[in-house]
Amino acid sequence: MLEQLSCVMPVVIPGVRSEVSFWRPLFTGALLSRTSQGGRKMIFKLLNEKLSVSDLLPMEYTDNHDKGRILYAGINYDSYRLQKADGLFARILRNPTYENIESLVFGGFFIVICNTEEKTLQIFRDRAGIKTGYFTRNADGFFFGTNQHDIAKFAKEKRFNPLFCSMLININFIPDGKTIYQDVFEFKMGSDIKLDFKGNILKEEFHPLNFATEDNALSEEENCKKLRETILNAHANLISRKNIIYLSGGIDSCVIAAALKEVAPAESLSSVTYRIRHTTQDEVPYARSLASYLKIPNEVRDVDPSSEAVFENYEQRILASNSPYIGMWEFKPEGGGADSVWFAGQDTRLHTPALNHIDKLAVRLVLNKNIRALSCLTAWINDLYQPVFRTLGFWKSKNPYLRFSDHVPALLDPERYVRDFIFKLNPTRMKLTFPENAGYFADMEKYYVLDYSGIRNPRDFYNKVVQVRWGQQYTDDIHYMQDMGTLAHTCVQMPFYDVAHAEFASSIPYALATKFFSGRTGFTGKRQKINKYVLRKAFQDELNEQTQKRAKAVSNTVYLLFNGALRPIISKTLSDDLKMDTSFIREYQYEQMAARFLNHQTDWEMGDFSFLMGIYFLFVICIYNKHLHA
Q1: Among the residues of 264-397, which ranges form H helices?
Q2: Which end of the chain is more exposed for a tag (fewer CB within 10 A), N or C?
Q3: pTM (global) more than 0.85
Q4: Could you read off the pLDDT of 200-220 as tens digits, one per residue?
């Protein structure tokens, strides 16, 4: 990954305000380094073998046994957990290895250590990808830090990467290790890197997630018991004095509440449920029912999409965010104080594969090499149906049988089915929603290639799907939650991304993990078959029936934001960009997309979700473009 730095060069860090002596011990903990907007940023500069650090509020840290200094510790530790972990940094410095750090730090880490004997820098990033850092280089040296947009100011070329901008606009996330900038890169998940002060790479290793390649031999009861244990352990390692639950009413957040009820003192627990005003998909009743059942206090926060206060300081907040997903305006983790943490229910899907019955059939077909070989003879049927699907407008039909009718003929080409509907990289739908970006499809597809000849069984297949998605969609979801925590001066814990839990979950038998059972729809309460069976069974004694048998449901409220105060903000930003000599929209040919939004006169609807998400990320990139050329 760092091959760009293989030549001898000084090492640098952007926006330097003061030079810090190489020998001065510095430590920046989770809550000790802040920007004026509330975001924590760290920028390092090694120039002429001297270390400079900017945007720091350093705290002296010494230990008689250490051979180095921790320059930065990006960790999910609030003040209470930091106090409980007394001696944590001394233990890290006594043995500054990846294995030791991973055994000591829970909740993710991006750590920079200066070895005062060797005069080297060590950089570590957790393999779940919860914390992160970025780097670039120019003729002067090597720059790295925690905010990619500040690092971009020091790139050799102040340009965007058209492919990854297209991926962000089309599918709303980009691969781990990449950014929207041409010459800015992310330290990959599991990074274990050592540099000298001239920029020479002395060590570059990556510690991957170790997923199973086959089903474990445990019974259903044993799997549920073990799953429960790993989930409880993951939560126990993250609790603080005050533990606040993002309680949506969905099964994942309900399990978080149940797990915390088991491992944390009752008086330390509270929950917050967000409701977007005017939504027709209200999850509050489900959240309240579970909170009442578990006797956990619950606060409902109504978010008014027409209020300008919701989007206050929007440029500064976006610039302080590495992954400014639109939920950052709806689900701000505010309140609780310095001794509190928030718990979010995003999960890996390893124990809850999101596969419907057609998907499962596609998995069986794609693992049959004879069927894969025949697909070249049958794929033409799918090709014939695509024009019908487009011309008759089935892709935007409110009838789900018509809207998803393209799934069935795609089964005749199962590898294509996996790409289109499991990875959700669908060229037909891309052309219909974002025709400007269709030319990037072939390059995007390269990030979704599986070697089917080496896949042993359905469990192995799904784990490899997760490995791809973890380094793309999952890490962007993680970054967005971490960004919100940073902006609110708090920590957001994500226990389902605990490595030990994830690695066990990857071994749960495929048939058990994908099992369906009788439940009810997410909002109407009608009977239907629902998934996530093994998770529901593992916590069946702690969940009430209303939530335990409720299907997964996501409240679609993006269109409400676009019909409110966000719309004029985005319109002005796109219009202002078009007036710039360095317009992103013009240079990267998004004029038609911008015009489609700016010329739209009526209210947006729920079905406009994909287009609106693309517009939102175009708006975000325009803000980054303005900052880059300021």
Answers
A1: 284-294, 314-319, 357-366, 369-391
A2: C
A3: yes
A4: 889 999 999 999 999 999 999
